[in-house]
TrEMBL record:
InterPro entries: SirB. It comes from Ferrimonas lipolytica. This is SirB2 family protein. Pfam families: SirB (PF04247). GO terms for cellular component: plasma membrane. Keywords: Membrane, Transmembrane, Transmembrane helix. Coiled coil: none annotated. The chain crosses the membrane at residues 6-27, 39-60, 72-90, 97-117. The lineage of its organism: Bacteria, Pseudomonadati, Pseudomonadota, Gammaproteobacteria, Alteromonadales.
Length: 126
């Protein structure tokens, strides 16, 4: 598959992952029963697995690696921060204020990852 195909797959799966994250945050904040549905527990893991696989495919196709592209290393660090804050948002039994700040922090890391992918200019570990 050429670069463009992997890129479009990656962007599509990113959109699905973000939409599911926001939707699950809303459900958690409302105490919705939707969070107990089987598909809500399974689909996000499938989407995130596809996201990681498409990212690996892009690394393979482009030749960018975390060792030769500092922006990609930084993006992976941002991904870890996003995952941790996503866990705090959706799984950690804390108050609504804590969950809201974790959610906003996770969105901040998402925007930072998008900016890194767009500009390829790292700023944290120059």
């Amino acid at each position: 598959m050429p670069y463009e195909a992997f890129k479009h797959i990656h962007f599509t799966v990113i959109g699905a992952s973000i939409a599911l994250f926001i939707l699950r945050f809303i459900w958690v904040m409302k105490g919705s029963e939707m969070m107990q549905k089987k598909w809500v527990k399974i689909v996000p893991h499938i989407v995130d697995t596809l996201l990681i696989l498409s990212g690996i495919a892009l690394i393979y196709v482009t030749g960018f690696t975390p060792t030769n592209s500092p922006w990609l290393f930084e993006k992976l660090i941002a991904l870890v921060a996003y995952i941790v804050l996503g866990f705090f948002t959706l799984k950690l039994e804390r108050g609504k204020l804590f969950r809201t700040f974790a959610f906003l922090g996770a969105l901040g890391w998402l925007f930072y990852m998008a900016k890194l992918a767009q500009t390829k200019m790292p700023i944290l570990f120059m």
